[in-house]
Amino acid sequence: MEIIYGMTLGLLVVSFYKDPEKTKKALKIALKKFKKVMHPFFMMLIGVSVSLAIIPQEWIEKSLSGGRVTAVLIGSFLGSVVMMPGFVAFPLASILKESGVGYGTLAAFTTTLMMVGVLTFPVEQAYLGRRLALMRNITGYIIAMLSAFAIAVAYGEVHL
Fold it and tell me: 106-134: per-residue pLDDT in tens?
């Protein structure tokens, strides 16, 4: 990540050297957009923190146990609430697997956890617009359910 920051800083310096006025104008636009996104971003952080503090881990493990269709649906809905990166989602999936959660449910949970975000929707809407953010979330949910079904079939949790 430091490499990306360094490259960005370097390109900013080059831009400033070539045309200081354009660079200042671009930085002002970026700051304005940043301010626009800060409120929804902080609201999202508060919502995620509160939801993770309120929902007990034991309830999540109990609700997701087994390979039932209801467990897959509950897993997909719980995963859809917040959006997390893979380095958080996969260790969480490992803990849930040790608790007896089925592969199809884990697929639904982790895929929606990384691709769908109800609490992150205001931030996405600020960046992408309402229609595109909604379509991205719906498409992500459909893909998550299809992959969960395919994995459940592959691991013998659902028989065709």
Answer: 999 999 988 898 888 888 888 889 999 99
